[in-house]
Amino acid sequence: MSRRVQSFRALAVLVAGVALGTSVILAAAGQPTPSPTAGHMTDHFSQVGVIINAVIRGDLEDVREPARWMASHQHAKGLPATSALYLEEMKNTAKQTAQAKTLTGASIAAASMAVNCGACHAAAGIKASGSEVPATGAAPAGGIAKHMLEHQWAVDQMLNGLVRPSDDDWLSGARRLQVAPMAAKELPDDPKLSQEIRDFEAKVHALAEKALKATAGPARAAVFGEITAGCGECHGLHGRVWGPGVPKI
Description:
Elements: H1 3-16, E1 26-28, H2 38-57, H3 61-72, H4 83-99, H5 103-124, E2 126-128, H6 143-163, H7 167-176, H8 191-213, H9 217-235
Antiparallel strand pairs: 1-2
Helix pairs in contact: 1-6, 2-3, 2-5, 2-9, 3-4, 4-5, 5-6, 5-9, 6-7, 6-9, 7-8, 8-9
């Protein structure tokens, strides 16, 4: 087994333990304690995280069950009347996510679902804490593992920006995605595979620039969907499932 293949296998083990944060605290504006619906909202955020992780792995089938859960577990009990329309739209986008035929279709629908979460939070005067994202420099020094973790944490931060919602989180995540491309020595020995990975790398960095310019929810959902689908497609190049949430090997 070559050193590069070994490093990719080590990366698979490392990233398997890294998933989108699934803790969220919701409180009505001005309230010091979480609202009675906090548990339900935490479940929502958790399931959105499961969906996005599946997209990043390139695993379309694993998108479907949590998306169906989201479509069938929406209720307005304990929420302001203004939430009803957003919850209905949440159901619709969850159904679209579950029924998607392509990874890109699923990822954009899932991102739209996150945008609806954020719009509902804003309309209801609810503050979502989102997930805890490690600070820049928290990843291992150098190498492909650091590179992939920075990608993952950038996506986490951008998701926070959609769900809270928060312009600061969205922009900081997009900037974090502008990391330097992987060095040639970090890529697989297969020339064709290496070139395809370089192409995906270039696409992700270009999308980071696009994300910085996106201001409206739909535009952010579209670019976030493109980014996560690109992650999934790149992970699928080698014939194995890599990315957050895979079983340890």
